[in-house]
Amino acid sequence: QVQLVESGGGLVQAGGSLRLSCAASGRTFSNYVMGWFRQAPGKEREFVAAIRWSGGTTYYADSVKGRFTISRDNAKNTVFLQMLSLKPEDTAVYYCAANPALRIGLSRHEYAYWGQGTHVTVSS
Length: 124
Hints:
Blueprint: E1 3-7, E2 10-13, E3 18-25, E4 33-39, E5 46-52, E6 58-60, E7 68-73, E8 78-83, E9 92-99, E10 113-114, E11 118-123
Parallel strand pairs: 2-11
Antiparallel strand pairs: 1-3, 3-8, 4-5, 4-9, 5-6, 7-8, 9-10, 9-11
């Protein structure tokens, strides 16, 4: 049973930073793509960033490129999302997701496993 547990959310002022963590268990994730998505109130869940576990290839949404960095720690089976220069429009629930595939997908429908989410609030 795949389990994804996010942590690290909170309240931060605009311009600040946060680092989200996603602890993954239940499988060997070497052939998975791990993604971060977010959902703001009243909006659809949108792609933020993804990383191919094997090889470390990454991909980012244009809205976060240059500010967010996705990475993984193989030894700890953990994926991180480092978020810098946060803006009020980054406020959302952030979800970790896992896709048992090698292609980096941008649609939430491509991801089979999801965490419960962690709240990020950026005040202006």
